[in-house]
Amino acid sequence: MQLSIAPHDRVFVLTGAGISAESGLPTFRAEDGLWAGHRVEDVCTPEAWDRNPAQVWEFYSMRRQAAQRAQPNPAHFALAALEARLGERLLVCTQNVDDLHERAGSTRLLHMHGELAKSRCERECGRPPVEDRRLYASLDQVPFCVCGGRLRPHIVFFGETPLEMERIQRELAAATCMLVVGTSGSVYPAANFVHWARRSGARTIYVGPEAPLNAEAFSQVIEGRAGEILPDLFGQG
């Protein structure tokens, strides 16, 4: 199956945990309330950080280690190849915090939930996040910002506002085609993106192992592994 992209098309791609799962990274499963064996409330909320930053850093150090071992899969490379073809007419917005898209070659990329390989000041003092791939065995090893605040993972915790929402809304309004890959349609505001794109007249395509919860919003739902479908999905245009 192939979908054509016309010379005037602007493509907005939203990727979720499913594309990283094909590289062996665990996904969050809301039905059992656990994430890699941890309760979300204990490791990924502002309250968890205030209560026990050592436990939060232990968890995210573990995630960093797993992400560093993982390798991009054919779906990541297919999206990088599509960017090489379309240039500024394509943007990938990912809910994932790993760097598999970058390592596959994507550059027009937006991490709405933050990045594992960066840290930022817990005080939100205005200084930009810094690259940080270290694994912290104890809180004593975690450095401080120049303002005196401890560095925390550059991750959007549950209850915090996703990053770059204004740009996302502008890009969705301009898109003529939206591709969603490997996301369940249960996490907001990302689950609403397809509705915003449709209001602007975009055709909407979903690719994933099973239909998402918001399947009715898509022009087309293609069930299967992204690594098998994406490399051959788009025809020349």
Class from secondary-structure proportions: alpha/beta
CATH fold name of the largest domain: Rossmann fold
CATH class of the largest domain: Alpha Beta
Q: Mind summarizing the main beta sheet?
A: 6 strands, parallel
Strand content: 15-25%
Name the helicity range: 25-40%
Distance between the termini: 15 Å
Average of per-residue pLDDT values:
92
Describe this protein's structure.
The structure is a single chain. The protein is of the alpha/beta class. Helix content is about 30%, strand content about 20%. It has 9 helices and 11 strands. The chain has helices spanning about 15-20, 40-45, 45-50, 55-70, 75-85, 100-105, 165-175, 195-200, 225-230; strands at about 10-15, 35, 40, 90-95, 110, 115-120, 130, 150-155, 175-180, 205-210, 220-225. The model has no long low-confidence stretch (mean pLDDT about 90).
